[in-house]
Inverse folding.
């Protein structure tokens, strides 16, 4: 499914929910992922408590997009954001990950992050996907699943 089709799907869902909002697509250079930005007059209805509603909304959009992908094709990765909420959250995650990456580099060892949602783990994995000295992996199960940041010498 193309980003334009995903954008149209979001717009249809928002219209069905009687939400006044505009959707735009922006590529994020740092995360190497496109953002589908929703500018809403009532963002709290879409964000919910600690972003739980937004996570559920994003999950539904992702499932719809994945269902449209032909078998064997790569599933699309994207981030749904409402009034900059996800961008702020990503910056917080990035700051925590940066501190732990520096700790892993300094001690030349592995460091574990606190448990995170699948979405948050995807962000950390994408941040360090191209770093030849840092390898990220996930460990644990369910709500205890977390990122392990490992220093790798060449």
């Amino acid at each position: 499914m193309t980003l334009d089709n995903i954008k149209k799907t979001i717009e249809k869902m928002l219209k069905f929910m009687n939400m006044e909002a505009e959707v735009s697509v922006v590529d994020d250079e740092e995360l190497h992922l496109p953002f589908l930005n929703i500018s809403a007059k009532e963002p709290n209805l879409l964000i919910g408590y600690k972003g739980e509603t937004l996570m559920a909304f994003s999950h539904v959009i992702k499932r719809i997009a994945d269902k449209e992908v032909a078998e064997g094709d790569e599933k699309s990765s994207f981030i749904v954001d409402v009034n900059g909420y996800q961008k702020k959250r990503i910056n917080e995650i990035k700051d925590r990950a940066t501190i732990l990456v520096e700790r892993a580099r300094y001690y030349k060892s592995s460091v574990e992050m606190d448990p995170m949602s699948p979405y948050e783990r995807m962000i950390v994995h994408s941040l360090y996907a191209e770093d030849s000295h840092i390898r990220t992996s996930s460990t644990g199960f369910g709500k205890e699943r977390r990122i392990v940041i490992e220093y790798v010498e060449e």
